[in-house]
What we know:
The protein has a seven-stranded parallel beta sheet, sandwiched between helices. The longest helix is centred in the first third of the chain and has 14 residues, at 51-64. It contains 17 helices and 16 strands. It folds into two domains: 3-205, 3-Layer(aba) Sandwich (Rossmann fold), CATH 3.40.50; 215-376, P-loop containing nucleotide triphosphate hydrolases (Rossmann fold, 3-Layer(aba) Sandwich). The protein is of the alpha/beta class. The chain has helices at residues 10-18, 26-36, 51-64, 80-93, 111-119, 128-135, 153-158, 162-169, 187-196, 227-236, 250-262, 276-287, 298-301, 321-328, 349-359, 369-372, 376-380; strands spanning 41-44, 73-76, 101-104, 123-126, 147-150, 177-182, 201-204, 215-221, 243-246, 267-270, 293-296, 311-314, 338-344, 362-363, 365-367, 435-436. The two termini are 35 Å apart. Residues 21, 24-25, 28, 48-53, 305, 333-334 line the site of adenosine monophosphate.
Amino acid sequence: xxxTDLGLHADIVRGIKDLGYQRPTPIQESAMPAALxxxxxxxxxxxxxxxxxxxxxxxxxxxxxKPRAGTRALILTPTRELAAQxxxxxxxxxxxxxxxxxxxxxxxxxxxxxxxxxxxxxIIVATPGRLLDHLRFPYCNFERLEVLVLDEADRMLDMGxxxxxxxxxxxxPTRRQTLFFSATMPPPIAELSREMLHAPxxxxxxxxxxxxxxxxxxxxxxxxxxxxxxxxxxxxxGEIKDAIVFTRTKARTNRLAEFLEKRGVACxxxxxxxxxxxxxTALDQFKSGKTRILVATDIAARGIDVQQLGHVVNFxxxxxxxxxxxxxxxxxxxxxxxxxxxxxxxEEEKDFRAIERAIDRVxxxxxxxxxxxPSADATKRPPARGPQQAPQRAPARGPQSAAPRAPARxxxxxxxxxxxxxxxxxxxxxxxxxxxxxxxxxxxxxxxR
Length: 449
Ligand code: AMP
């Protein structure tokens, strides 16, 4: 199928061409015809699949034919970054049309957003909390609404937005087209979709919980106290040129960024305690190449779109396989090759094995002897204790709590070669790293669930 087969307005096709999209992605091929017919949609789509255009293009087509009449489409999405990114996609795709969009999210002034709502821009992209703030005022009304999109519904659930969504729904016309997107379908989301959708067309492009096939996945077995050093080592040896590095908490994001900055690696940070301006600056600097490393927590990094990203580093193993898939989906987007590297400490093996089962693939552990043992510092220190025994203010945080206060230490200087011979270690070069999977023809693990 080609975009020109969809009967789209010529000005929309020009916008698509300008973006360099040659042909629809699979989700676009399935979703666009049904959405263009005005049907409700229930779509399971993997991250990076092109789902934004899958709902934006049909909205543009629907609105372009009719005279302007206030806000006619509303897209609800969980994070500010996603909202900003979807709004950007709208302005790119609609560049040759008279249609306009605006993003509404917290952390910035309400004034310009109020103006957008008062003037009735055609498409509003909003995070639920800030939209509810506006809905308290009479200028915010959606009586002309024709299309509602719920984007990343499962993430909305994770972030506790379901009650907000229900409150917003009460303020929207019931006669409307609803496009419902979710990477997974946990029971509360399935229930919400049943309430919201009428005879939806079902599209499932995400059920096979698998990162895009082109992504090379590697894992390092590493002691929990040595992760920062290992990362620094990979950066200085040129193994990692640019990467989004995912950590488990805001504090770990800060500590790692400080560790790298002290050693001259320019890096940005993205987490929930950063202001909107700080987040945008971090993203812009990373996208423009000013910084090579972006350290981020999952939620803050949700939906980041950086073209041709080389690496995703899972500095901490995510607790649930879905988060792994989402993280890894940051690289290799829309068909380009990428690489995902995961640092697996002994305490995280269990979680990583669950991920391997979910992706039906065994990711070989690379063992770099320098980093599989605790650092000399860490072995001298008393082991991590329960909060009641800990003399310091910050409570111990699980297995990683013995991690050094990174900035205080220098990276390990290893007089030994990077990898030791005679042990079953593998060099880090991609050529000799094997991952076994369906496509690779290597040994498979039986799905255990
Ligand atoms: P999304 O899943 O919507 O975040 O899109 C992921 C990436 O794919 C974005 O960089 C889009 O610009 C890109 N993209 C979307 N549709 C296409 C297409 N048909 N061809 C090539 N790239 C696309």
